[in-house]
Design brief:
12 helices, TIM Barrel, 318 residues, two-stranded antiparallel ribbon, 15% strand, alpha/beta, 8-stranded parallel β-sheet
Length: 318
């Protein structure tokens, strides 16, 4: 496992982290807590030092599983990143039927409240990284979320302030980096082999200000593992049922076919490993956080770290 510092201000972390949405037990089909905890243990055994979660993942369940494992293993140099801004504490069933019930909420008082709840669930006295969770641009125009992060930092309840950019708003929201670069230490952004919008403005701005980048959805919900087919279907309790609809899958597979020459350059590596290596190839990107539900998935993902980034001559446009 290789390690890197996230930008000029962020912590040192493993270049492959552990994305803990799926182990929350909701939105990804059936999960088994015992297997999920084995996956977390395996990640630590492989040298992973960044675990990324959110309060809304399983409505706190992901954070609790992480806390249980760290209580057993010791926190040591492990960095736990979590998120706030998707309010499941005060939402109704009508607020979001797809992931729900949740609603976006970046009120200063709410972000502080949510952070305090995460502190309790994780069993720590300070959060390593707290990220504003994929809020829409209108909400991010408000002072509230940024004031909350600043206050939590001043109070010592968080070490690093982060922001998770809303999916498909990578360029639309990039201007916010100019406005808040003095506060933000880490930015999490949707970035993978088939979705490279962040390269236009967001990643260069992050580099300019020395802000660390965490690449989320690096395997595009599993599509880039090579284990899907264009006819893949998902259960209704799996968010991919609508995030990877038949029409979207068709479009993605059309884009994926164009990447075959890249995969053929590295015949001894899995498609997942090559896809993770792509993320690590961008000089702004410090780490990628693929999700994993089993120890075997963790092992395969972590192998990408030692392989390092892909030589740029193989990646057009980078």
């Amino acid at each position: 496992m290789k390690y890197t510092k996230l930008g000029q201000k962020g912590p040192e972390v493993s270049t492959i982290g552990f994305g803990a949405w799926a182990i929350g037990g909701t939105n990804w089909g059936k999960t088994d807590d015992a297997v999920s905890q084995k996956a977390l243990h395996q990640a630590i055994d492989e040298g992973v030092t960044l675990i990324d979660s959110a309060d809304v993942y399983g409505f706190g369940h992901s954070e609790k599983l992480i806390a249980d494992v760290l209580k057993e293993r010791g926190k040591n140099n492990i960095v736990v990143a979590t998120k706030a801004g998707n309010d499941f504490y005060h939402a109704s069933a009508q607020d979001d039927k797809g992931y729900g019930p949740i609603r976006q909420n970046v009120d200063k008082e709410y972000i502080i409240y949510a952070a305090e709840q995460s502190l309790i669930r994780l069993g720590v006295d300070k959060l390593d990284i707290l990220q504003i969770h994929s809020s829409n641009t209108e909400l991010l125009e408000r002072d509230d979320p940024w004031e909350a992060l600043r206050l939590l930092k001043e109070q010592g309840k968080i070490v690093f302030a982060g922001w998770s950019v809303q999916s498909f708003k990578e360029t639309e929201q990039a201007y916010l980096i100019d406005r808040h670069h003095d506060l933000i230490d880490v930015i999490q952004v949707r970035y993978n082999l088939l979705e490279r919008e962040a390269e236009r403005e967001l990643l260069p701005k992050a580099q300019k200000y020395g802000i660390g980048i965490i690449a989320r959805i690096p395997l595009l919900f599993g599509l880039l593992t090579g284990k899907f087919s264009a006819k893949m279907t998902f259960d209704k309790d799996d968010h991919r049922h609508f995030n990877l609809s038949a029409e979207k899958l068709k479009n993605y597979f059309s884009l994926l076919e164009k990447q075959r020459p890249l995969f053929e350059v590295f015949p001894d590596q899995s498609q997942a490993q090559i896809s993770l290596r792509f993320c690590l190839s961008h000089p702004a990107c410090g780490t990628a956080i693929p999700g994993a539900k089993t120890p075997q998935q963790v092992i395969e993902n972590c192998a990408a770290s030692d392989l390092g980034g892909i030589p740029l001559r193989f990646i057009p446009g980078l």
